[in-house]
Fold:
Amino acid sequence: MTTIESGEPEDGDLMASDGKLPVPDHVAAAIRTLIEWAGDDPAREGLVDTPKRVARAWKEYCSGYGDDPGIHLSRVFEEVGGYDEIVLLKDIPFQSHCEHHMAPIIGRAHIAYLPRNHVVGISKLARVLHGFARRLQVQERLTAEVADCIWNGLNPHGVAVVIEASHACMTARGVRTPGVAMVTSRMMGVFRDDDRSRKEVLSLMGLS
Ligand SMILES: Nc1nc2c(ncn2[C@@H]2O[C@H](COP(=O)(O)OP(=O)(O)OP(=O)(O)O)[C@@H](O)[C@H]2O)c(=O)[nH]1
Ligand SMILES: [Zn+2]
Structure:
C-alpha cells in the first residue's frame, strides 16, 4: 500500500495509510490559521488533528462537486400500467451550506413531477437533491437547479420543487433569529401554467 503523508498529492482518490483522504499541507495550514484567529491554540492536543478532520469534513459536505446529478435520471421505467398522475417525493431531509457564510442549511424538500411516458426510480429524486445540496449554495439556486435537472432529464409535463430550510447563518450568528424557515419553490410546465395542477401538487405536499 502506498503511504501518503499530509501535504502530498491532492488527488482525492488516493488514500493515506490510515485509509483516510490525504489533506494537503496548505489546506491544513489554512484551518490552523482560522483556529488561531478564532482565539485558540491550534498546537494544543485537542486541536492538533482538527485541521485534517475539518478538511475531510468539508470534502464530504461538498461531495456534490464530484457528482453530475443529471446522471441519476438516465434510467427510466416505462411499464407503469398507464400511470399518468403526479409522482411526489415528500419531506426529503437534506443538508447544505450557504455560500455566504459556509454555515449549515438544514431543511426538507418536496419534489414532484407529472410524467410524460416514463417514470424514474424514486430514490433518484433524492439523489438529484443531494447532488446539488452538497455544494456551497443559496436556497434559490438549489431549488432552481433541482427543478431544471428533473425537467431536462425526464421531459415531464410538469415539475414542482418546494424547499423549506433553516439557515444557521441566521440562527447561530448575525441576526440570531431561530425558528424561522425560508421557503422557496419552482414550478415548471403544467404546475406553472395551470392553477388546478398547481393547487393539486401543493395540496399533496401538504402546503395548501
Ligand atoms: N437569499 C438568500 N440569502 C441567503 C441565503 N443564505 C444566506 N443568505 C443571506 O445572505 C446575506 C449575506 O449578507 P451580507 O450583508 O453580505 O453578510 P452579513 O454581513 O454576514 O449579513 P448578516 O447575515 O445579516 O449578518 C444575509 O442576509 C444572509 O441571511 C440564501 O440561501 N438565500
Ligand atoms: Zn449564510
Notes: The CA atoms of residues 27 and 55 lie 7 Å apart. Confidence is low (pLDDT under 50) at residues 1-13.
